[in-house]
Amino acid sequence: MELTFLRESRWGKVKYLYVVARYVPFLLFIANLYLNDVPNENPEKCQFLNTICACFGLISVLCSECFFVLRTYALWNKNKIVLAVTLTAFIGVLAGSIGISFPNTTTAPFATSPIPGITGCYQSTGSNDLFIPFLLLLLFQLGLMSLTIIRAIQSWRSTRSHLYAVLVKHNVFYYGCGVCESGHTQVFRLVFCAHR
Questions:
Q1: Pairing relation of β-strands 122-123 and 110-111?
Q2: Of 51, 54, 68, 76, nearest to 17 (Cα)?
């Protein structure tokens, strides 16, 4: 079914965005597998691979969040003010995340695995500031979820479209899952990093 969609539908900006958002996580997974398996005799190589993984992760988040911005924009009937506010917030989250993530990952040393016989590039220490990009993303997702819920409440009785109802329901559910995932990941990270 997906191959039919990719072959037969018209190629445009949104389709390219979809393809990148859909398949870059597989590249990230492969890069992380390689990063965890390559011998860590060369810290520069480890850092280079770690930067590649960080870039793939950033591209993945960027493309998926662009979809949410576009959905919110569509739900608000292409309101330019909503688009300007969401894009400004998104650019702020992106800039803040890049400004915090990349300097902190480049300064963390690579160590050997605590498990004998396991090779790979492992960063044994890092900054606790790495939770801030996730916190920024969490706040951004809460903002988009709030805009979606506000629009759903405003259009509750006036719109009888089944497609609209499904879109709103799936948006809110997906935002909720993303918010919960981001939140509990960071809580666990902070709790377990504090006890190291």
A1: antiparallel
A2: 68
